[in-house]
Hints:
By secondary structure, the protein is α/β, with parallel strands linked by helices. It contains 6 helices and 11 strands. The two termini are 20 Å apart.
Amino acid sequence: MRSNRPATDPGSDDRRATLATLAERVQRVEAGGRPDLAPAPPDAIPFPCAASGASLAMGAVHEWFPDEPPDPRWTPALILLAHIARLASERRAAPAGALIVWIGRRCWAHPRALPSPVLRRRCLYVDPPDRAAALWAADLALRSSIVAAVIADASGLDMGASRRLQLAARDGGAIGLLARPASERAIHSAAATRWRVAPSPAPMGGAHPRWTVELLRRKGLRPAEQGPRSWTVERNHAQGLVVVPADLGDRSGCQTPTLTAPARRRA
């Protein structure tokens, strides 16, 4: 993804971010003080399941934090992010299949995290030399009409940069999955949602890795007064899907789907 950087008006992004913030305030007022009742966009990805009431909007960025002490060697939950990127790619039509862009070596998924050869062929890996280049690459990818998802190492992202990526995702329609270290949870952001991911113990003899995912914030919306804000999910190796475990489905409000082998599509 090498290209000459286009010349832009430095004040343009600030003006657009201000207008976006004002639009969100108007929407909250028009919702009659009950923004928690606003419906999810029709193309939103239910997460972790349809019954949870939580979702990940396309055309927006979502941040993911590990539940661990601050550590410069932190690692993102790439299996989980790869699952969401796969769902996004199924929602976005493109002549040769919508691309998934991985930005920053920390966020390069191992091939085993991508269950099908077709999906692996749609992946593009970017190794930016610094944070400024990473931000530029993420902005460019999110604005592309042939990109379904961008998974990026967003270490050091400030409020202005997060607004820039949120606007880029809104303009392009892709979903941005931004991996950030635990030490940056206190930094303000324009992301649509923020999540914390922690490893979860599997039952005795369990062969599938599990995580607990917690919705920390949903921008512009209040969480429902009742219902869970955290769920346990596991990866089914055979299908390459992340689902609510069968032994926890009823307690979480989610029903574990009957999994079938994904149909192979020509790239």
